[in-house]
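Entry 12.
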Amino acid sequence: MNERDFADLAVGHALNALSEADERAYQEALAGNPHWDHHVRDAADTASAISASVEPVEPPPSIRASLLARISDLPKTDSRAGGGHDDEDYAAAGPAPIEPEREVASTRASAASGWGAKRWFALAASFAAVLVLGFGAVTASQLFTPPAAVVALQEIEKAPDAQQASATMADGTVATAHWSPSTGRSVLVADGMPELADGTTYELWFVRDETPIAAGTFKPGPDGNATAELVGEMHVGDIIAVTVEPDGGSPDGTPSTAPIVAVATA
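Predicted 3D structure (tokens):
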């Protein structure tokens, strides 16, 4: 399995929309490639953010009809021809609005087609789950396209000069800075950050020769996880710090509170 396949499955896993076989493949790939765990965090954050931002609504009947029509167009292979039998119930893959009497025929992907129809059924079920939860305004491309900070992190991790350093907050939360001089990008990743009070945000800083330089603001997801790219060019030896500021960032461009974490990069 390549990383892109895993990222697709991570979305289905976050929405509880994978078949048993795909869930096993997902877990095996994660165990063999622990450095892909950022896809897991991103998928969970995306699902949580969407869930928190839109009131649930009843999807129109046309959504279900359209989904079933697309599924019926998937290529089907007679399992007897391959000498095997695939008895997985893909209609049970997730909360897609599919009634039992419209059970979808099983499909088997060939080696040449990668995950094939089975993979795309899981993704269709995931998207249907989003619609059922009331997220009809979100397009498929928006759901499956990683945020800019995640793309930056992936670019850093692929760079030959990628580096990272970590620091621990007072509550035990670990924040890790990732950077690469060749890409000119830097990203802070933290899981389980403290909840912000209303009207406040986290602000990033490059601390250079004891001078703080504003580097953007961010808010973690509902679970406290965050992947935030710093705005501006990092210099060798900078300290990456985070403070709590009013929404929009510090009014005067300097920290108004003591840093909750500071990551030394040298």
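Annotation: The chain is about 35% helix and 20% strand. The chain has two domains: 3-144, 148-264.
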